[in-house]
Amino acid sequence: MLEPASDTEAIVAHLKTLRSEANIAGMARYGIVTEQALGISNPDMQAIARAVKKNHARAFELWDTGIREARMLAIYTLDPKLLTETEALRLATDFNSWEIVDAAADLFVQARLEAQLVPRLAADEREFVRRTAFAMIAGAAVHLKKEPDATMIGFLPIIEMYATDPRNFVRKAVNWALRNIGKRNLACHGPALALAENLAASDNKTARWIGKDAVRELTDEKTRQRLASKQQ
Fold first, then answer.
1. How many angstroms separate the CA atoms of 22 and 170, rounded?
2. Is the distance from CB of 189 to CB of 182 less than 8 angstroms?
3. Do residues 111 and 141 touch, judged by C-beta distance below 8 A?
4. Phi-psi group of 53: left, alpha or beta (phi > 0 → left; psi -120 to 50 → alpha; rest → beta)
5. Model confidence over 173-219: pLDDT tens digits?
6. Which of 137, 189, 209, 210 has a beta carbon 3.0–4.6 Å from 175's, enabling a disulfide?
7. CA separation for the pair 230, 173 (Å, rounded)
8. Using CA atoms, how far apart are residues 79 and 87, in angstroms rounded to an integer?
9. How far apart are CA 22 and CA 39, in angstroms?
């Protein structure tokens, strides 16, 4: 039985007892990197995280095992109040899967590292590192409800700058970030929609796809009604 005092060795040994070949095959179908996966679902991983509690030092030991589940558990048990920019960049160096990126992006936003990390990670040429920047923007637009709208609008030039990156996991995250800013509230909707319309008219195929998809969602009647109701 795992408990807060469990060390890295005990946790990894427990994880290995939960290995599922069927789940590993299923993960691969969703584009999850499975070379070092055990096939444990994220809800089960989150339950384990609740059992072992946060432990910043141990989380990095788990990360260094390279096991997919140990790395997810590391993200769940790192303390965002303690996480530094240097530590976040250390994690980013190892990113090789969209699900790891998206979980880590949420952690980085909880740690309030978006101002430092978004420009730096976006400028990185590695696909999953760059994706992290835009996953962070997408998460920040939703979760940082008390953050001034100007902060979110301030991310739009970065979105525009990298909207021509054709790599699948980047372009989808850029699109996600743009849509989430536009859906934050009416103040953000206008500037985001304006950028989306500009991208939709671009000569670049990737930028055009990002823009058209965002325009479609941001002009949807349900989206407009939801934003209007939030304003009341």
1. 29
2. yes
3. no
4. left
5. 999 999 999 999 999 999 999 999 999 999 999 999 999 999 999 99
6. 210
7. 25
8. 11
9. 7
- The answer to whether 113 touches 88, Cβ cutoff 8 Å, is yes
- pLDDT single digits (tens) 32-75: 888 899 999 989 999 999 999 999 999 999 999 999 999 999 99
Find tokens 């005092």 and name the residue. 5
Amino acid, single-letter form, for residue 111: A
CB-count burial class (<10 Å; 0-12, 13-18, 19+) for 197? middle
Look at phi and psi of residue 6 and say left if phi exceeds 0, alpha if psi is from -120 to 50, else beta: beta
Q: Which has the closest alpha carbon to 100: 135, 49, 150?
A: 135
- For residue 60, the one-letter residue type is F
- Contact in structure between 189 and 147 (CB atoms under 8 Å): no
